[in-house]
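Let's practice the habit of predicting before peeking. Look at the sequence and jot down your guess about where helices and strands might fall. Then scroll down.
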Amino acid sequence: MSLFSFLNSQTSEVCTAAGCYLERNGGLVSFPLITIAGLVDGINPCAIGMMLLLVGYLVVFANKPERVLKTGLVYIGAIYVTYLIIGLFFYQSATLIDASPYRKPFNLALALILLTAGLINIKDYFRPGWGVSLGIPEVSRPFLMKWVEKISLPATAFLGIVVTLLESPCSLPIYVGTAKILAQSGFDFPVVLGYLGYYNLLFVLPLIIILVLVWKGKDMVVLEWEHRNKRYMKLSLGLFLIILALFFLVFS
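Done guessing? Here is the structure:
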């Protein structure tokens, strides 16, 4: 028996409130939920900021605009694969926890983490720069800049992997909550994999749009949009995190 068959057989014996709800309404609830979660997660300022830094360096400082498309695609591809692997890890972890006696304490702890992250993001909308913020650690920025300046394809792929890991304070709360819901859904693993693949496509969609716009010479438009809407990105992240937190508090 494979690991995923074992996990499915274990979770099928445990019908959580969220699990039963999603089993009855899975087709109606999950697709819209995954769509909204992936889009909201994708507009996080961390990933967008690093994308702008990379393509901006190619265009302005390195004076190599012809490399923007290829380098950007490698960077986005590395983020997609890394984030998909992270999602599978959290899905498996959540599936195992759901089959254990620690399910309810874990759901409560997850709800509190999501709620805290949501309130911090909403705080950043009203009082940016004040107190604790979720983002790529400042101490890592010189290290990341060194890899941006290398502008080789292997260095860009490595940069995408590292940025995905370092931006976890921004993006992981929504992703973990989504993986937890999928673990409680009762779906077979191929369906879950399809949902995670779709989620990650939506996650990198804003980066693809930015890449195309910069490639077409619209870099100033992108920079102005990012500067004007950064607070609204934080607000949307915060509100969705609070909704996820309430979901786990009500249905777990």
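How did you do? Residues 219-251 form the longest helix (33 residues).
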